[in-house]
């Protein structure tokens, strides 16, 4: 069933971007290329958000696949917008191993004879605008749903909350990491929840459920489940970012260490005697592979890996408890239990 | 009457931002400060867009002031979002003589002990997020209007067109100015139309008219009027940017020359024998006041000022022709004629 949804989402994205590129072509080749870069940015993901929309919608008896696909598309485009603006903030030019919007436009500028400085401005402009356009489309997709006002407004509230809280999380993440102080676990977890769990897990589940007509109490339970499981997934991602196999995770196992990313792993390490030794090298952009391996060994030895994994497990346990306490349709309950379980299986 | 509307808009903005700041406070003082900086960015403008929404709405017999205020608020917040992201792209930290969102957050970061690099990242993050939040609220304001679906969807289409075309114009403006070639008049005018006239003049007029129930033909005429008068205003602004009294325009009369801004003035100068002499100094960031005065004299002498002013007048004439050809309510026609006239009176 997820495969069927994936193809529906891919088809919807393809149709939308084809129309957008044609429409953009009237305003010049660069603008069409900008839309193409948004399309490329939106492809290659795992479609977590569309799947959650679809699971919840179908789970509550929703049968209008086209309608669910539009809501799923909205959350996929919201995700695309956030990735693009997150990369802009982090000054990254690569995403999932390929040039991102900024990377593509920097290259395009050089091809058109721009110098380095001009190329940087092109790239930044493209990233600002691409994110704005994807964000606008996410809003429009929900706003134009031909469903009763009350239900559409509930979906707009979910979207509003997702945008509001994600921005809070992004700001907290950036200001926190620049302050240079030791990350406290509580701050790390609330940032994970705000920056990612709400818009990626809570909101898509809530939207699917509301679209199918689920009541407020059960939607609240799904929201709590989404936040908990979302935090578990992020903790696991961060553990894999340091200890995972780059061939499987698709990212360097030293990148997070070089960046000094503030994770649950690091917050735990900061409470141990090993911290001064770890803090000394963490966040060093010049960290070589040997030093990264030493850091990794220190994080293992001081119990940080074990503590982070246990923390993820606790979140999954609490998430699963929400599933059992709520009056969920049986099939959806099974599906979400399996989904929660996957947060753990990846790291154990 | 415009004064009454101004106070209604100010009141609506105040209420909205007060709620947002309280809501944001739950996510930390920095996030509340971010909302405060959006509020500051949205104050001090001339409220051109709200006034146009209101003129068109009232002109077509609209009587629900609260509803019109919400639409006006949406366009004011769209404008705020575009200003913030435009400043981000231009790397400006000052707007209307005061620190903008980035400027405020750079200072805030330094107060919190951040170094120069960290302060720049804070500032950029704040500008990205502030624009996203204002843009999202503009969408939400229209999407939540309690009006019949057909009318709300027509308003959403107007908003969608405004966002789509403004992004095209912003991209064309940046890529054009970086290419370093001589600006052609046609490209300058279409960029003015796309980047500013559509979202600032066409869309607010169309939105007010549609909200009041005006028919598609008359809305199209208003759109044409809006684009023409919008281009006239921009040409005039650019002339004033070079020849105006800084005490009245509120901006330095050398800034556009130092920046090498591609205006109708410059596009005309590029077709005259004076161009090599002008091109030599134009866009020099180190241009002093004497050199700026010389450039100004050269632009006057080669006929660029006269040509740009005549071009603005032509646009006003065409705009007024649209007013006389359309079946407009008499009072609205008079009001819009006066509005068009103002585009000229500022520069003559």
From TrEMBL, chains A, B:
CDD domains from the UniProt entry: Trans_IPPS_HT
Names of required cofactors: Mg(2+)
Gene3D superfamilies per the UniProt record, alphabetical: Farnesyl Diphosphate Synthase
Keyword Ribonucleoprotein assigned: no
Superkingdom, taxonomy of origin: Bacteria
Stored SUPFAM superfamilies: Terpenoid synthases
InterPro entries: Isoprenoid_synthase_dom_sf, Polyprenyl_synt, Polyprenyl_synt_CS
Keywords noted in UniProt: Magnesium, Metal-binding, Transferase
PROSITE patterns in alphabetical order: POLYPRENYL_SYNTHASE_1, POLYPRENYL_SYNTHASE_2
Family to which this protein belongs: Belongs to the FPP/GGPP synthase family.
PANTHER family, per the entry: GERANYLGERANYL PYROPHOSPHATE SYNTHASE (PTHR12001), SHORT CHAIN ISOPRENYL DIPHOSPHATE SYNTHASE (PTHR12001:SF85)
Protein name: Polyprenyl synthetase family protein
Species: Agromyces indicus
């Amino acid at each position: 069933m997820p495969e069927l949804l994936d193809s529906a989402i891919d088809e919807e994205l393809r149709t939308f971007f084809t129309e957008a590129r044609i429409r953009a072509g009237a305003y010049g080749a660069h603008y069409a290329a900008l839309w193409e870069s948004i399309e490329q940015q939106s492809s290659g993901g795992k479609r977590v958000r569309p799947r959650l929309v679809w699971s919840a919608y179908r789970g509550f008896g929703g049968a209008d696949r086209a309608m669910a696909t539009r809501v799923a598309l909205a959350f996929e485009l919201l995700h695309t917008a956030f990735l693009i603006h997150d990369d802009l903030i982090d000054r990254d030019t690569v995403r999932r191993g390929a040039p991102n919007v900024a990377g593509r436009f920097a290259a395009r500028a050089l091809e058109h004879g721009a110098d380095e400085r001009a190329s940087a401005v092109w790239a930044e402009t493209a990233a600002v605008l691409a994110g704005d356009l994807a964000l606008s489309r996410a809003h429009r997709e929900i706003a134009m749903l031909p469903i009763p006002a009350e239900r559409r407004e509930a979906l707009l509230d979910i979207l509003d909350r997702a945008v509001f809280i994600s921005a809070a999380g992004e700001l907290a993440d950036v200001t926190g990491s620049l302050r240079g102080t030791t990350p406290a676990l509580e701050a790390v977890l609330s940032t994970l929840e705000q920056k990612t769990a709400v818009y990626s897990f809570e909101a898509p589940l809530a939207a699917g459920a509301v679209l199918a007509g689920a009541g407020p109490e059960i939607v609240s339970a799904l929201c709590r489940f989404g936040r908990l499981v979302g935090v578990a997934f992020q903790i696991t991602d961060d553990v894999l970012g340091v200890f995972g196999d780059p061939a499987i995770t698709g990212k360097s196992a030293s990148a997070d260490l070089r960046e000094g990313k503030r994770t649950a792993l690091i917050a735990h390490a900061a409470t141990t005697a090993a911290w001064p030794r770890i803090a000394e090298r963490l966040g060093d952009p010049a960290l070589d592979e040997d030093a990264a391996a030493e850091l990794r060994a220190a994080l293992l030895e001081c119990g940080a890996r074990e503590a982070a994994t246990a923390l993820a497990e606790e979140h999954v346990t609490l998430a699963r408890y929400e599933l059992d306490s709520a009056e969920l349709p049986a099939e959806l309950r099974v599906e979400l239990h399996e989904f929660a379980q996957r947060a753990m299986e990846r790291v154990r």
